[in-house]
C-alpha cells in the first residue's frame, strides 16, 4: 500500500508540490508566529521580572489594591521592615530590596534643557546597597547607577529622551512625603538607564532609598519589599506560586502580604493571553487553507482515478483499503509539506531569535502592542511547540484526506466504470 | 458439471424518466472449462450479464450460482471475497494502474489475498509471489517486459498484462468484456489464442462478452442476447 501511495503522490508532481507548498507555508507561518509570540512573551516576562515586579512584592495590607494610586498612608514601618528583613534572611530569601514608590512630577527648565516642561513619572527609591531583587546590572547605563548617599536621580532612557536630558543636568522633583505633604527638591541627573522594558524606561526615575528617606522624611518607612526567587525566568514561573505562599505564611505575624509577579502584572498577562488567543485564530485559518488544499487535491485525485478504484474493487480490494490508500497519499503530501515547512520555519525563527525583528516602523510605540518589550522582537524556538505543530500538521493532513475520501468506493463497481 | 447457473435473472436500471430492462428472465448454465461468448448487438445486455457474473453490479431479481454459491445469499464481504478468489476479469480498456510496472500490476491481484489463500497458490513469501507473477507474465509471453510501465507497452501487451493479472490468482472463471475492441486484428488474434490456450491447458472457464466475429470464431458456444432476452 505504501508503495502504491508513494507512486500515487508522484504521479501528479506539480499538484503534489503545490499542495505540499500550501501546507508548508502553513507550517512555516505557524512555527514562526508561535516562536515570535513565545519569544516576545518570554522577553516581556523577563523585563517585567528583572526590572519591575521582581518575583514577588510584600506590601502592608491594603496597599496592593490601591497600588495604582500610590497610597502614602499604607506603608511598611521601619520596625516591620527590619523584622521582615530578618525573616527573609533566616528563611533563605536573601535577594530582596527595600523600596519606596510614589508618583512624582519632574520639572525641567530651559538652559540647560532645550525647553521647559514637566513630566509625570514613577519615583522608585531602592536600597542601593541591596538591589538584588532586580537585574539592573544587565542594563545599559550612561553615567552612574544609584549609590548610597550620592545625591542624584537616574532617569529611564525614554524619559530622558523626551526631556532631552543629559547626565549632570538638574531637575526639580515634586512628590508626596510621609503623611502626604508635598515636597519639591532640585537634584542632578547622575545616570540614564536603558533596561529594555519600555514602561520602566519611559516613566521611572530611580533614587537611592536613603536620599529619598531624607527628602520625604520617611523615617525608614517603605511602600514595599521586592523579593527575587531566582533570575532564571523559567524557574521563577514554575515556583512563583508556591514560593509566594511560603512567603505569605512567613509574614503573617508581621501583618504584611506577599503577591507574586503574576498577581502584580495580572492586567499585562491577560492582555498577552488574549493576543496568544488571537494568534491561534490566525493559525486556525492558516491550517484551514491547508485543509482545503489537501481536500481539493484528494478529491481531484479520486475523481481522476475512479477507473483504478473500480479496478481495485474488481480485484477484490475492499473500501477500507481504498480509503486507507488515499488517506495515506494525503498524509504523504502533508508529510512533505510539514517536513519542508518545519525546516524553513525553524531556520527563519532561529534567524530572528538571533537577529530580532525591528517592528518599530509598524507598531510604533512598543507599549501599544501590549508586551513589555522594546520594538526589537526576538523569536524563541521551542522544541515542544515545533513538535506540536508537526503533529498538528500531520493530523490535519490525514483528517483532510480522510474526509475527502470517506465516500470513495461506495456504490456498485459497474456504475463506477460507467461514470468514467 | 456446471460452474455458473442463472435463475430467471433480471436487471433493471432505474433512470429518472423510465426503467431500463437490461436483462429479462435469463436462465442459463455454463459448464466448468467452457469457452463461450455472450453475443448480441449494442445494448443487448451482454456486458450487464458479465458484470453480474463478476459481482460488479446488483441483481434486480432472480439469482446466480457460481460454484454452488448463490449470490443472493452473499453479504458485501462475501462478494468481495468471491471477486478476490474466484473471478478474474479483463476489460476493453485494460484498466492497468499506470504508475506500476507490468509485474507490480500483476502482483496487485495477489496483494489482497489472505495468507491462507496465498498458501493455496504455493506463495509463502515475497520471492514466491514474484515468481508466480513472473510465471503469469511468462504464460502471456511478457516475461521480458516485467519492469515496463503500461505507457511503455502496446495495447496488445497491456491487454496481456491484464490477462496475467486476472489469471495469476488461479480463478475459477475468466470474464472478458470486449477484450479485443481496442486492438488490431493481429493483436486480437494473439489475445484470443492466448485465452483459448489458457482454457485448454488450465481448464479455465472463459466467458467473453463481444459481438466481434473474431471472438465468436474462437469460442465453442455462443449465448445470444437481444433486448435483454435470450434469443
Report helical residue fraction of chain B: 25-40%
Number of strands of chain A: 12
**Outline of chain B, from the CA principal axes?**
globular
Order of helices and strands of chain A: HHEHEEEEHEEHEHEHEHHHHEHEHH
Mean pLDDT of chain A: 87
**How far is it from the N-terminal to the C-terminal residue of chain A, by CA?**
24 Å
Structural class of chain A: alpha+beta
The number of helices of chain B is 8
> What is the CA-CA span between the terminal residues of chain B?
24 Å
Number of strands of chain B: 11
Rg over alpha carbons of chain B: 17 Å
Give the class of chain B from helix and strand content and strand pairing. alpha/beta
Strand line-up across the major sheet of chain B: 7-8-9-4-10-11
What is the spatial order of strands in the main beta sheet of chain A? 2-3-8-5-7-6
List keywords for this structure.
heterodimer, A: 420 residues, alpha+beta, 2 domains, six-stranded mixed barrel, elongated, B: 231 residues, six-stranded mixed β-sheet, 11 strands, 26% strand
Structure, explained:
- The complex is a heterodimer of chains A (420) and B (231).
- Chain A has 420 residues and is of the alpha+beta class.
- Chain A is 53% helix and 17% strand.
- In chain A, a hairpin with a 5-residue loop joins strand 6 and strand 7.
- Chain A starts with a helix and ends with a helix.
- Chain B has 231 residues and is an alpha/beta fold.
- Helix content of chain B is 36%, strand content 26%.
- A six-stranded mixed beta sheet of chain B has the order 7-8-9-4-10-11, sandwiched between helices. In chain B, strands 1, 2, 3, 5 and 6 form a five-stranded antiparallel beta sheet that branches.
- In chain B, helix 5 packs across helix 6 and helix 6 packs parallel to helix 7.
- At the A-B interface, helix 1, helix 10 and helix 14 of A face helix 2 and helix 3 of B.
